[in-house]
TrEMBL record:
This is Integrase catalytic domain-containing protein. It comes from Rotaria sordida. Residues 127-294 form the Integrase catalytic domain. GO terms for molecular function: nucleic acid binding. GO terms for biological process: DNA integration. InterPro entries: Integrase_cat-core, Retrovirus_Pol_polyprotein, RNaseH-like_sf, RNaseH_sf. PROSITE patterns: INTEGRASE.
Amino acid sequence: MSQSDSTIVQIDNGELVYYTELEKHINSLSEKFQAKSVIKQSVYDDIVKFLLLSKDKPLSLFSSKFIFWVKKYFIVIKIAGIDIACYIKSKKPICIYESYYNVIREAHTTISHGGRDKTIHELNSHYSWIPRFAVEIFLKQRISCQTRKPIKQHVITKPIISLGVMTSKFTWAYPLKNKSAVDVTLKLRELFFVFGPPRILHSDNGREFVASVIYELKELFPDMIFIRGRPRHPQTQGCIERANGVLCDALGKWMSINNSSHWSDGLLPVVYGINTRLSVVTKTTPYQVMFGQAPRSDSDFWKIAEENRVIDEEDLPTPVTDLNDDNIMNDKNNDFNDCPENIDEDIIQFVQQLSDDAGASSLVDI
């Protein structure tokens, strides 16, 4: 075959296909919503430029509609010494149009490839101004998520009301070479000695759970009740059967996307993603139910540090202050350089006051 007869087929990557479909959808909208449905880099730069413009400067560079729109919806917040435009209601940084693909992909991977609502919840916890249709178009392009959708025939389950640490939907998982009773018992001992034992240890009738070595846990934790499900009747442990299905589905997506056959390598990140994504039942994440706070991940701060190639400790920019703390925000522009100098003393006095309170058993209870 001669060189002239050969044809070169160029395969579009996922990002190119995504933005092509996204542009089609934006163009299908009315002109009223096209301009402000997404914020591109040029518009973002104008927003920051206007918000940082001093009062004595002329406003002739911007139209009156643009000025009204910016004043109504946006403010500037300093993050690591850099001025970032944020949505005025959520105080979250604006995600520009050019970053949609990478940002949505990162959020979707973080929650172990959860569905649309879980992905949107993860995005809204870090960014603003990402429309729903941008997430839906992205998920339609994910082959692994489309081909591994769970079958809509769930096992009938009874709702579990969270009353404490060991009654939440928080998930633990450990890789084991086999299901021997000894290995299972060792992992359960490690778990119970860190978080405390549950009131009820509910299991199926597998050999690893009916062996005598499991009953040694009863001697270590005498207040724990050990209950087995009915033989050949998975509905009695329907909640854990459903949880196993969610874990297997997310782990399968991880293996497919990472082109890996070592499921043990992806077990911990997948479980973390499940624990930090939105639960439809509780309307929050299992992590927040378990620990009473969101994970400490200042993603914007560390992205800026990575872009500036921070290596030494002395090169670190100013630490990021919690964007949701309205008490620390002193003015409308949320200048974090104006934080009170005696904040450490206030925290110490607050902790001492809690320690003196005889009715308070712990900070978590309060």
